[in-house]
Amino acid sequence: MRRPLLPGVTFNEAGRHSLRTQLAAEGIPEVARAARLGHRVPGMARVYEHVTPQMEERVLSVLESLWAQSVADLTPVERERLFSMAPSLEEHYHGHTKSGLPQEPASKMISQISPIAG
Hints:
This protein has six helices and no strands. It has helices at residues 11-25, 30-36, 45-48, 53-72, 76-85, 87-93.
């Protein structure tokens, strides 16, 4: 069993549950939220609902905005520590655009919709 990140806080609570909640707050459809987490929607919705390229683009846009804001909210010391642990993140944050996000096509982004099996 994995140790909690903080007392009483597990990765699922801090990561996956928060992500799903944030995506819902941004108006991302249930089918796209489920796909992002590698889940399937239950029942007949699985037959009639599918993730569209526009949904994927919207999820990516929301994730980029959340990431940029979370990095911007760090103190300079915290940001320096983050970038020292993962130097490639700094390239994506500094100087690419006014918002600090890279100007790369979505196919080269760090966050993408999880593939769905079968």
